[in-house]
Amino acid sequence: MRLGDCTLACLGAGNMGAALLRGLVRSGAVRAARLRAADVKPAALDALRRELKVRVFEDNRAAVADADVVVLAVKPQGLDRVLGHLRGHLRPDALVVSIAAGFPTALIARLLGGKPRVVRAMPNIAAAVRMAATAISAGAHARRADLRLARELFETCGLVTEVEEGLMDAVTGLSGTGPMYVFIIIEALSDAGVRMGLARHQASELATQTVLGAAQMVQQTGQHPIFLKDLVTSPGGTAINALYSMEKTGMRAVLMDAVEAATRRSRELGRPFQSEPA
Ligand SMILES: NC(=O)c1ccc[n+]([C@@H]2O[C@H](COP(=O)([O-])OP(=O)(O)OC[C@H]3O[C@@H](n4cnc5c(N)ncnc54)[C@H](OP(=O)(O)O)[C@@H]3O)[C@@H](O)[C@H]2O)c1
Questions:
Q1: Is residue 60 helix, strand or coil?
Q2: Which of 45, 52, 76, 246 could in theory staple to 56 by disulfide, Cβ–Cβ 3.0 to 4.6 A?
Q3: What atom of ligand 1 comes closest to residue 179's alpha carbon?
Q4: pLDDT over threshold 60, residue 276
Q5: Would 64 be classed as within a structural domain?
Q6: What's the rounded Cα separation, in Å, for the pair 229 and 237?
Q7: How many A from CA of 14 to the centre of ligand 1?
Q8: Atom of ligand 1 nearest to the CA of 101
Q9: pLDDT digits over 110-125, tens only?
Q10: CB within 6 Å of ligand 1 — which residues?
Q11: How many domains does the chain have?
């Protein structure tokens, strides 16, 4: 089945659920009439209905009644209750796509009962501007076609890659948490500009565009970042002096430690779910 022919229900219309729905509507991938959003917050649903013209529900069972694809976008802590409530109420051929951090596909299948086709995904908050980096992995009963459909779904919000489910904590540490690292880098660069005498608004504008431009250069040229670094480090120049200062502070190790800390935390958060018998 193609994404455009699917009826899709998104359970949880918070930051990520709403961002995914926006991506689907704005990319034109799925008509608004085929989209359903469910949440426990009537005001949030009302705002989404007015903005995107999707159908909204306060009852998850009603939202999934005719859904070919069910996206689980509630917090992992409440997901077991949501799945228990849905048990026996999904269409038998529905594809379940979960973005809940740390929640294994095997447990989703066990809580839903039967042999549901489940795809797990880890997007990031940049889905809000359709620039997310998303990793997807297949549960035991998912087919190639299900991964293709999930890829199509998340490509409406950015880039998609496929990983083994066991690597989802590493993905959470790198790209799931990743926008935070870059927000801090932008803010620190902006502070540095202010410290050197620039006005705040100009420092922020220049820092943001610099990060965006550097990222686009890596992506569009396909060149290794080290090659691009060499382009700006002229002998005895400003960049090589800045680089020397960064290396002395252990900047790379700082970032590697941060990703490791986030990966470890993701594992810890997922542990209560992983100890459940599958
Ligand atoms: N935010 C990120 O950067 C990010 C990145 C990757 C993946 N994720 C994953 O995405 C999922 C959603 O995260 P989020 O940041 O979008 O959280 P969020 O903003 O809190 O959105 C979740 C929404 O679901 C609602 N909800 C609670 N119980 C519900 C129920 N039984 N049925 C339907 N809706 C219910 C919540 O309402 P209340 O607020 O009233 O509880 C809230 O509006 C999580 O599983 C998270 O692990 C998030």
A1: helix
A2: 45
A3: 3
A4: no
A5: yes
A6: 13
A7: 5
A8: 47
A9: 999 999 999 999 999 9
A10: 11-17, 38-41, 44, 60, 73-76, 78, 82, 99-101, 122-125, 176
A11: 2
- The burial class, CB within 10 Å (0-12 / 13-18 / 19+), for 256 is exposed
Is the pLDDT at 96 greater than 80? The verdict is: yes
Report the separation in Å between the CA atom of 239 and the middle of ligand 1, taken as the mean of its atom positions. Answer: 42
Cβ density class 52-79: b for 16+ within 10 Å, e for less: bebbbbeebeebbeebbbbbbbbebeeb
In a domain, 15, yes or no: yes
Q: Tell me the C-alpha distance between 108 and 118, whole Å.
A: 8
Domain holding 59: CATH number? 3.40.50.720
pTM for this entry = 0.93
Where residue 203 sits, what CATH number does that domain have?
1.10.3730.10
Which atom number of ligand 1 is nearest to the Cα of residue 44? 43
- Examine the pLDDT at 180 and tell me if it is beyond 50: yes
- Structural domain range at position 249: 178-262
Kindly tell me if the per-residue pLDDT of 277 is higher than 60: no
For residue 14, give the amino acid letter: G
The dihedrals phi and psi of 11, each to the nearest 5 degrees, come to -95, 115
- Segment 7-32 shows an average pLDDT of 95
Residues 188 and 252 in one domain: yes
8 in any annotated domain: yes
Say what the pLDDT of residue 278 is. 44
